[in-house]
Specification:
Blueprint (H helix, E strand, L loop, with lengths): L2 H25 L4 H7 L4 E10 L5 E10 L7 E7 L5 H17 L5 E7 L8 H15 L8 E5 L5 H15 L20 H19 L8 E5 L3 H12 L3 E7 L2 E4 L6 H7 L16 H5 L5 E4 L18 E3 L8 H9 L3 E3 L1 H4 L2 H15 L5 H26 L3 H19 L4
Parallel strand pairs: 3-4, 3-5, 6-7, 6-9, 9-10, 10-11
Antiparallel strand pairs: 1-2, 2-4, 7-8
The structure holds 1,4-dihydronicotinamide adenine dinucleotide (NAI) and 2-oxoglutaric acid.
1,4-dihydronicotinamide adenine dinucleotide binds next to helix 7 and strand 7.
């Protein structure tokens, strides 16, 4: 796909998010001014970041940080390093974060950052320069009580550590609560690394119960084998599911008898790539329409569209990725009786444990893993039920229901503050 097609797709992601927000607010009888406030991030910063590359040249990168709405509290959300990042995509991602935080009741609004770049072709020294340069460029608008970044696609605990160190140097005091997803030794939380996948597993279990199915013995396809996808494959494999398909940026693997997940986990690289090691690779698009009971997109946006929604075989789609299904495809799948657990609910485990990390940093007292996972399970189980019941009671699809649940707290906060 060429650059202009990608940027058109990202624009579509942004405008269709606006449409779902508009419909949700209308259903909630909110005044038009509420939509005017929430249809765009309240702040969008674009920065230029010069980085000295290993060959002696200077490369200037573009960076974005979007802050959607801070009526409930500081904004929160990951930073993405990926070649396809665009301004529209980062804006949409920040809007989804607001809704996600609203659904799981966190004292945050949504934020998101991104840099169009390809970390797979950069050295560690260049990546460190880029991570530190990004923090210097956005330092005025971020901070533990303003906007708290975290990992997303192709960023990890090492990138968070560099960013935290740079911020602490600028402010001249140690600031662990500036960012989450850090290594444990620097104030990271137990369970953050696996939290997105654990959250997906918890809501998947709820969805399976509602559909009268069992995780054990279910045939599952997972698109994406990075942080979210790889932990998910392990958790679901351990729960007795048969993982029949996985994929990464280079292709996909499918075997209706089940893949050898432990071997794939062992051989994947640090960017979540493994499919190129096998000769019988298929494409990501071919994988999505293969036979399975449950489909879990856990990579990037716009994967299930009007083009392939009719061919999806799964009975349940659980969105670990942000924005993998277009709204038109949501309607087609719902019409076909496919139960969708939307991204803003299914992928909320990461930000929930990021919140726990921030709380622990602020109080300087750290919780054991069992306590974190138990708190996470309670939040996500009740959030699933809230969204599911809203969908049932109003006779609407799960995505619109999730937006209504998520927007409710934001609109309340906006009104109490006297903004509208
Ligand atoms: N890491 C986190 O805490 C959270 C992540 N998410 C979402 O989960 C999704 C995956 O994120 P992570 O696992 O953290 O990223 P990651 O960087 O660890 O892994 C990304 C995976 O997607 C694959 N990928 C990249 N470009 C692709 C393409 N064009 N087509 C197919 N596959 C491609 C990569 O090969 C890799 O397997 C994203 O949508 C992210 O926003 C959501 C909530 C939290
Ligand atoms: O952990 C966080 O703060 C945010 C994670 C994130 O970017 C997401 O849920 O999409």
């Amino acid at each position: 796909m060429n650059v202009s097609q990608k940027s058109k797709e990202n624009k579509d992601v942004f405008t269709s998010t606006q449409e779902v927000i508009r419909t949700a607010l209308q259903t909630m009888n909110e005044p038009p001014a509420m939509y005017d406030l929430l249809k765009e991030p309240m702040r969008m910063l674009t920065v230029r970041i010069p980085v000295k590359m290993d060959d002696g040249s200077v490369k200037v990168f573009t960076g974005y940080r979007a802050q959607h709405n801070d009526s409930i509290g500081p904004t929160k959300g990951g930073v993405r390093f990926h070649p396809d990042v665009t301004e529209e995509e980062v804006k949409a991602l920040s809007m989804w974060m607001s809704i996600k935080c609203g659904i799981v009741n966190l004292p945050y609004g949504g934020g998101k950052g991104g840099i169009p770049c390809d970390p797979r072709t950069m050295s560690m020294r260049e990546l460190e320069g880029l991570s530190r340069g990004y923090v210097r460029a956005i330092s005025q608008i971020v901070g533990p009580t303003k906007d708290i970044p975290a990992p997303d696609v192709y960023t990890n605990a090492q990138v968070m550590a560099w960013m935290m160190d740079e911020y602490s140097r600028i402010r001249e005091f140690d600031s662990p609560s500036f960012i989450t997803g850090k290594p444990i030794v620097l104030g990271g939380s137990y369970g953050r690394e696996s939290s997105t996948a654990l959250g997906v597993t918890i809501v998947l279990q709820e969805a399976v119960n509602m559909a009268g199915m069992n995780v054990k013995g279910s045939r599952i396809i997972i698109q994406g084998f990075g942080n979210a996808g790889s932990f998910l494959a392990k958790f679901l494999h351990d729960a007795g599911a048969i993982i029949v398909g996985i994929s990464d940026a280079r292709g996909a693997l499918y075997n209706q008898e089940g893949l050898d997940i432990l071997e794939l986990l062992d051989r994947r690289d640090s960017f979540g790539t493994v499919s190129h090691l096998f000769p019988d690779r298929i494409t990501n698009q071919e994988l999505l329409v293969k036979e399975c009971d449950i489909l879990i997109p856990a990579a990037i946006e716009n994967q299930i569209t009007e083009q392939n929604a009719h061919e999806i075989k799964a009975k349940i789609v659980v969105e670990a990725a942000n924005g993998p299904t277009t709204y038109a495809a949501t309607e087609i799948l719902t019409e076909r009786g496919v139960l969708i657990v939307p991204d803003v609910l299914a992928s909320a485990g990461g930000v929930v444990v990021s919140y726990f990390e921030w709380v622990q940093n602020n109080q300087g007292y750290y919780w054991p893993l069992e306590e974190i996972n138990e708190k996470l399970a309670n939040i996500l189980t009740s959030s699933f039920q809230k969204v599911y019941q809203t969908a049932q009671t109003r006779g609407i699809n799960m995505r619109l229901a999730a937006y209504i649940v998520g927007l409710k707290r934001i609109t309340e906060a906006v009104k109490w503050r006297g903004w509208i």
